[in-house]
Amino acid sequence: RNSGVTACDGMPKESSPFINNTDHDKGNLYDGKNMALFEEEMDSNPMVSSLLNKLANYTNLTQGVKEHEEADDEEGSARSKKPVKSPALGTLIGVYLPCLQNILGVILFLRLTWIVGTAGIMESLAIVVMTCSCTMLTAISMSAIATNGVVPAGGSYYMISRSLGPEFGGAVGLCFYLGTTFAGSMYILGTIEILLTYIVPSAAIFKAEKKENEPEALLNNMRVYGTCCLTLMSLVVFVGVKYVNKLALVFLACVILSILAIYAGVIKTAFEPPDFPICLLGNRTLQNHNFDQCLKTMEVDNVTVTTKLWSLFCDSPDLNATCNEYFTLNNVTVIQGIPGLTSGVIRDNIWGDYGPKGMLVENKHQVSEPAADTSQDIYMPYVANDITTFFTLLVGIYFPSVTGIMAGSNRSGDLRDAQKSIPIGTIMAIATTTFIYISSVILFGACIEGVVLRDKFGDSVKGNLVIGILAWPSPWVIVIGSFFSCCGAGLQSLTGAPRLLQAIARDGIVPFLQVFGHGKANGEPTWALLLTGGICEIGILIASLDAVAPILSMFFLMCYLFVNLACALQTLLCTPNWRPRFKFYHWALSFLGASLCVSLMFISSWYYALVAMLIAGCIYKYIEYRGAEKEWGDGIRGLSLNAARYALIRLEEAPPHTKNWRPQMLVLLNLESDHTVKHPRLLSFCTQLKAGKGLTIVGSVLQGTYMTKEDEVKKAEQSSMTTERTKGFCHVVASSNLRDGFSHLIQTAGLGGMKHNTVLMAWPGTWKQSNDPVSWKNFIETVRETTAANQALLVAKNVDSFPTNTDRLGEGTIDVWWIVHDGGLLMLLPFLLRQHKVWRKCKMRIFTVANMDDNSIQMKKDLQMFLYHLRLDAEVEVVEMHDSDISAFTYEKTLVMEQRSQMLKQMQLSRTEREREIQSITDTSRSSIRRKNQTGASGSESDPSRQREGTQEDEVANTPSSVTPTPPLRIQCQYWKSQGRRSGLRCVQPALFTVTIVWYRNQSNVRRMHTAVKLNEVVVNRSQGAHLVLLNMPGPPKNRGGDENYMEFLEVLLEGLNRVLLVRGGGREVITIYS
């Protein structure tokens, strides 16, 4: 599957080799009549009749075809393309034998006899059954995945990543890579162990002078020779990987011949057991290296002389020498190492014999006299445990002997019929190897003496390989066969691991690995081979086969775990594309396999299991945070969709309980002409407000129809979400006008119970100067609609001065002016803001307003108690606002507001003409009032009707100077009510002893302007230095004729403040004192 062109929404789309691929068929234009109805589709969608040949041959892609195609593209038409050969491998050669070769290996030859002797037949069978059941269940899951479509190069990594998504795919792919790399270390260590222990022991560089130093010397030899072997193998892989593949058949022949030699030897023991005597001192097994005869003394020419064995336990060869106490008390006896199939030794090997490091290997049926002093035993030539043994350790050491089941799926591109061969070949290979392992456990226990089985390195049989002494015709068949088998397996690991890393790197999901996607001109992964060699060297420096085996067990078990999960997930989700040809699978089997994998991980080594999971988790989070977005139609995405659907259905559409309420934001954005966000700080503020929690829907409107604006809508969606890296959903609609578009968003955004409950928008700062006279109308209608929809509304003024997500505000305050109760939203918002690191250092202050008849002291106490119950830390202040006379400034503001509103309604003029007309009327008004004040009409009070007429003509005023004469004359004006409840402005000129009354017809506007002016004075006085001021937002008038006046009221209310958030509740309680 290839990543196609990224669409405007940022999600990579899958490119198909069939759809929209008409370049090669442009000459074959359709000119028939039978399908004229589909002429429009012919341009992009080909006819089925011309497509069938391509569809049928699509599966005949060979492994690595992508690289070949890229090379062809580079050379262009200068090179004629060679026809691609059809793969011809069947089930036997393509799947069965490679799996057999990969499964049977070093553990079978070097450790299985020791595991049987240590754990006993019964527990060894339990280990074999557990591990083989795990791989069989994994193979069933893998067969289902592998037969669900074409599996190109990449094998198991490809299957997991395309089934579980890039995050899991990358994590498990790298775990599988590390497992394969450490497997290479294990095979190299096995090769060196066979070489130095059984073939040429004299080649050891480090030689132990004392017995207690032998393990350390062996490890150092393993490190030196292992490093040399790794270097040599890496050079072979680098220079001639094709020879490695050609030699695979030779290595496989070695494995099969070795297995046959073992079975032949077992059959031979039934009637003619081989002669491998074991020397016992008391019941202790002796290392049979430095003596020929199992005797303390012997008669030579009628003279009793001591043997070489005597010299090992005594300080001199004399008969009166001082000897080891245990040597003196016990006799030596000789038993057969391989009693034979019919000897009944199986009864002694049924149960295990675990012990600590240094425990001597003893035959419990032999008579023994214990010695008082055992301190010298470690220096004596006894066979002893080199490590502490217990059941779970043996599970970890044994598990690598059942890995290798992916060999067939890794070659899927070379198979004639992959969907048939992979299930049959893999399952048959696992069944065969399971039979070999189970029969080997039973036959080893039935043929070989227990002390020999527990002798890991064959010290008791003159340094022979224990499994070799059982084989027929010679132990060298097994030694040479296992040596070449380990060599071949190591080369295969060093060949496969770099290619796996290269496949991960070329997928581009892990950015820092991209350098390993490059290689030589022929595609060989040079850099990946270097990294593989480096990691392999770590395993070789560990030097112990028993220590490396559990490490790679973890990584393989992680891989198998996710193969099982992938199959179970796809089955349970009933994905439409999940149609495997292999039908013998079930989600329960896959879950059982996954559970078995997890159990085996923790059984083998709980700390290694945790480390492997931590590594996988870190890789997962890294890919999630930094990796490339890939849309592979994976199961995790399908699971997310199912979980989201289930949660949405369960989620009631009714409002949540007050305790669960949080602002679910719909952010209404305005876009510039190039579709960039006009106020990006609005998105930053939204992120700070919800602190990464809750729902965010970013909405915007483009004017026009969807048919003409489709591309622009997608581009706008992409730019909206990339701005400030907002996490949420974007919804851009095309509408004939902005008003209807925002209305549709408020009504339809969200789904089911996941709908917004709060609308966040910016204050239309240019509503007075805007070329579009409907901007402020749109704003007010949006306010009305949110109120009607019972949604909270947040309006940010001067939003461009709000902090970004990277800013850190210092010590300061968030001031809340709580004028009316809105459900507690004013209290909740500062608390939510302070959860974000931008506002964390800010303190919260709450102001409330008291009237003349209110008890401000009691109000403060009650508010403090209320905040205490709400668990909110805030300073409380009660501001007293006395009933004062309405000032001349207030009255003039009202006059200017109403006259301006009336003019804008009556005049359909251009902007310039409108401003010129307003200015001329204002100038006329100012001169008229100035003249009237200066003439000092003394009869004005006695003739109110005449005064009212003159006032109605000159009602427009712009500044306080319109009622203040030029100096030195002074005027004192105050709000005045008559007995007939008529109100106006009473102006007194003391110098001229005159009183002027200007009657006002609409007193509600005057009162509202008075509130705005007085409240603004108080807020500016107390909160001008605050980082943020939160205010109750007054509702718009019910009479739409006063909409513009409403905007003027808000302007006056917010004048002189920097960052302001107007808050209007949604008509429900959003904060509670109860737990």
Provide keyphrases for this structure.
1075 residues; alpha/beta; three-stranded antiparallel β-sheet; ten-stranded mixed β-sheet; 49% helix
Structural description of this entry:
- There is one protein chain.
- The chain is built from 32 helices and 20 strands.
- By secondary structure, it is of the alpha/beta class.
- A hairpin with a 2-residue loop joins β5 and β6.
- α6 (155-199) packs across α17 (526-542) and α18 (545-573) crosses α20 (606-626).
- The longest helix has 45 residues, at 155-199.
- The chain is elongated.
- Residues 1-15, 17-32, 57-84, 924-971 and 996-1001 have low confidence and may be disordered.
**Unreliable segments (pLDDT under 50, ≥5 consecutive)?**
1-15, 17-32, 57-84, 924-971, 996-1001
CA-based gyration radius: 45 Å
Helicity, as a percent range: 40-55%
Shape: elongated
Termini separation: 53 Å
Average the pLDDT over all residues and give the rounded result.
78
What proportion of the residues form beta strands (DSSP E)? 5-15%
Number of strands: 20
Q: Tell me about the biggest sheet?
A: 10 strands, mixed
| Helix count from the secondary structure assignment | 32
**Assembly classification:** single chain
Reading side by side through the largest sheet, how are the strands ordered? 10-9-8-11-12-20-19-13-14-15
Class inferred from helices and paired strands = alpha/beta
